[in-house]
Amino acid sequence: MAEIDEAIKKIASHKGVVGTIVVNSDGIPIRTSLDNTTTVHYASLIHQLTSKARSCIRDIDPADDLTFLRIRSKKHEILVAPDKEFFLIVVQNPSS
Amino acid sequence: MSRAGSASSKPPASASAAGGEAPASGKQTPAAAAGVTANGSSDQDGAEGATRSTAATPAVADPPTASDHAEGPASQPDTSGGDGGAEGEGEGSETQVEKIRIRKLPDELPAGAKPLFMSGPSQEIFHCTPDVDINDADMFKLILKADIMQDFKNRASVCDFHPVKSDIQNYPGDEVLIVMDRDYKYGENFVVCLTEEAKEFFLQLPFEEEHKAKGGGEGSDGEDEDEEDIPIPKTPIPRPWENLGSDMEVIEAQCKNQRQLLQVKYFRKRRFFGAPVEFSDSDFKERAVHECLPSSNEIKSVPIMEKDKAIQAIPETIDAMIQTTWVKKVHMAIQYEPRTEPEKPAEETPATAVTSSASIGVGNSTDQPPDASADRSTSAASQARAATPAVVTPAPTTSDGSDDIDEVLRRHLPNVLGAIQQNNLINIFKDNCRSLPVEEGDLGTKADTAMKEYQSFTDLKYSKDRTSTCVRWHPTIKGLIGVSYAHALTFDERIDMSSTIRLSQSLILLWSFSDPIHPLLLLEAPEDVTVFEFCPTHPNIVAAGCVSGQLVLWDLSDYDGKLSNHMALTKDGKSEGDDAAKVDTNRERDKNFFDRSTKAGQAETVHYHIAATIEDGHQSIVTELFWLPSSVEFDRMGNPLRSKAPMSVQIVTAAADGSVNVWDLRRPPKKQNEIARKEAGHPADAVLKTQRGTRIPSTFKHLSTEWKPYVHLVYGKSDAGVPYSPYKLATRLQSEQDKDAVYEREIPLTTLPPPSSADLVALDESIAKYYIGTEDGELMYVSWPFVKDSDSAKWITQRPLNIDTTHSGSIASLERSPFFEDIILSVSQWTFALWKEGVEAGPLMHSAPYECCLTVGKWSPTRPGVFFIGKANGTVEIWDLLDKSHIPTLSQNISALGITTLVPHIQKGRKKQQVLLAIGDRSGTLHVTQLPWSLAHCSPSERTSAQAFFEREVERLTYMQGLLGKNAAVKKTRLEEEEAIKSASRPDSEPTTERRARLKQEYKEYLAFEHKLLVQLGVVQEAKTDD
């Protein structure tokens, strides 16, 4: 447990990091540094997007797999590190 | 042999005989035909002769063979072969050979048979014409003896049978047989049988088949003579020659001498032969030299005007197929519940699930405990309290899962951190191209560095010999510009000439870009207009300040259509002359009528609608006038407030009489109105109305009786009673203008309530302060509202917060930068300066004094660091502070006379905007020039660099100030010290005698010292001293 917190802290120590969410394979948030509503929102939507992105990559080449997903928006950049069991979602505001 | 010889000699004779007969008879034998054709053309003669000779050749060649044949039958095959060859030739000349049964004449005439020549007439008489009466198949003709005998009688010796007359007479039978001998085998064309035996012989001649095969081949085969086929070649039958006019052509083609041949004789004197030739110039007329010019009749090449060509372009197409696997869409739902750690230890309420507001699913709500909302609030509170990330315990994960999480995090942490760092280091989405400077070298050609004259406006009647005082662009209508003119006179001259000036109109001319000679509209004012402005929200209202200090208003609503369509109208006016002859439709005529009414009577003159009386207005020339934006208005106490009126209703004016007035267009408050009504029939008003004789538009009806300044501010100097004379104002109020203000045509003035400050909000403190440039060159920083004087309890204007006297002459222009509200440009007579609001130490920048007067200064509307300065010698300077701050970037002479006014304007085109500079000069001409591209277009980073420039200047100023203070202090102390030293060292009380003695003593000492030194050096002898 301590290790997770430490990692999340490490991420949060960087400039512009808005929040970090750890989501399990079902799209249920496990750890978050954001408030509940935002977390759920992010978790469900990003989970769907990530699954879609992963299936897209696998459809192109079955031997390939998604390792990292970065979404740049006007306000934020959402970094997604998908794994078999968990997703790590980091929301960053790069312009801050 | 003799027979053969006769045979060989006969045919030509017969031919010639036939030639002689043929034209007479009209029916020709082959030979005769040949003769006729030979007669027709002498040219053909040779050819014809040749053919005849070929025809004759066998006959000529025959005699030896015939003689051989006569000597021995053994040589028969040879002759037949030669015969066949002759036949072959004949066959070749025939076009067709029929298979007919013919008899072949024997090679040797039997006894009693004789060759006989029968001429054409004879053939007719006896009906034996070849191919008519007899032919190859039936070559025999039996002629009655009696007929022949008759013929003897008729024709005597002419008769063809004459040579055999005696034989015929002795002929025993009744009928005489004649046999056609087409080939002249026996020398003549017929053979006559003079005995019965001969007759029998011929009649019993066997028939034989004629074959197509060569006669020569057959002959060489040695076939039986009797069975041999004799091909009888068809005689070519020449058609009778008919004269179709070709003889004329022939005659024409002939070349004959029509006249005697000319003789030309060239001769040259003998001595000129081989003599050296000298060439020299000569007059061609004298020497009658013909000049041979090159012929103009060249062979003209015919250009290809039209050409049919076809090109077919077929796009390349590719058939391709891609198959993508289509995943069937399935409705899916995920239900999730964030679970927060309760405040209490986990073991107590492990199952307390809190659904978030974003959770999906209806079924979820049923499971929710009744106090869900309360729980949520507590959980939110707990999260708020916990600054560290909220710990969410997942329901399905067990303690084993945590290891997975750690592992996953460990694996991904470098990635995530790297990405975060990347984002922080470089903004990959930053458009670097946008921040690049554009202008360098892009359009920086030499021609583009100067202002280009776009258009110039002058009117011979109204603007000549007058000075343009004010130029304003129409705020909404493109290509419309107003200029006010005034007589170029000093105050004294004006008084002297007041009577003549009164007679001439005082006008504001509205010019359209489409017509630089005829003004579109004339606005007439009671006195020369010094300054005017269109209302920013309702451009149909024009306010002007006059020389007399009056404020005048026009309402141009009636001319709205004309103004807004000014481009189209002038175009119609131009085509009017062309259309004059034509009778147009009614509509067209109406339009023309309208045009003519405006054209013929020059432009329409609009008399002023409202003017403040002279008593109520300024006491001096109005020097500054501007409309307040619709968002700002003053109350009676001079407080600028946030206005709620839908339009600009207040005008601020300043004049050299020391007052700043605020005028309100709305209906005055009730009380004053009543007073005004009491004074009904105000003499001034009555006079005003009759003088003008025009109706007052309903817009200004409420102002017609009385229009007084709403606020009247007088700035007095503290020491003397003389007030400051504000010339120009620089407020922040104008910048309050809403950027997206809607310009309206309808003027809602009458419906507006009278001004009251009841529920209006005060504006920011900084806005309430403004700068005044005075006639004496002072720059005052003052605050708007009145304050109550503590002594007299009267409301008086506030004392200026700061007065700067950097400028020596009267302020000609004072303007805030459109980009930086706190940067102010002031132009005095000899210098200009830049100020920053709040910096009281002095100007940021102060120009060196000019050699000629400066008349106007304006900021560029497009570039933060650029401003324009107009000078009295007709030159316009453009300063670009970011380029050079010690000399102007561009200095261009616009007019021969001085420039009086200068207004930049952004003209928005379809593709790009351009910056036009309207420049009025002392002669009344308005020049509209186009700024060079580089000076009109702002680079993206210019604003920041301009800001940096001004900040640097402020820093410099404060530093200099500090330095100056320090220097002053240092200088002062130094001076004091010096003073002290001086005062200390000065021998003030020593008597002169004592001093002289002392000096003498010192000199003696010195001499002794010197001597001693010289002795030591050995320069001077010791003994010398003895001397």
* Residue windows where pLDDT falls under 50 for at least 5 positions of chain B: 1-98, 211-225, 346-401, 439-446, 571-601, 672-693
User: What general outline of chain B do the C-alpha atoms trace?
Assistant: elongated
Strand order of the largest sheet of chain A: 2-1-5-4-3
Question: Ends of chain B: how far apart?
Answer: 194 Å
Category by helix and strand content of chain A:
alpha+beta
Q: Sketch the topology of chain A as an H/E string, one letter per element.
A: HEEHEEE
Principal-axes geometry of chain A comes out as globular
As a percent range, the share of helical residues of chain A equals: 25-40%
Cα-atom Rg of chain B, whole angstroms? 68 Å
- How many whole angstroms does the radius of gyration of chain A measure? 13 Å
The stretches of 5 or more residues of chain A where confidence is low (pLDDT under 50) are: none
- What is the helical fraction of chain B, as a range of percent? 25-40%
Average predicted local confidence, pLDDT of chain A:
88
| Amount of beta strand of chain B | 15-25%
What pair of chains forms the biggest interface? A-B, 50 and 45 residues
Beta-strand segment tally of chain A: 5
**Tally the helices of chain A: what do you get?**
2
The count of helical stretches of chain B stands at 26
Gist of the model:
The complex is a heterodimer of chains A (96) and B (1027). With 96 residues, chain A is of the alpha+beta class.
Please describe what this structure looks like.
The complex is a heterodimer of chains A (96) and B (1027). Chain A has 96 residues and is α+β, with helices and mostly antiparallel strands. Chain A is built from two helices and five strands, in the order H-E-E-H-E-E-E. Chain A has helices at residues 2-12, 36-60; strands at residues 17-24, 29-32, 69-72, 77-82, 86-92. Chain B is built from 26 helices and 40 strands. In chain B, strand 30 and strand 31 form a beta hairpin. The chains are: A alpha+beta (96), B alpha+beta (1027). At the A-B interface, helix 1, strand 1, strand 2, helix 2 and strand 4 of A face helix 13 and helix 14 of B.
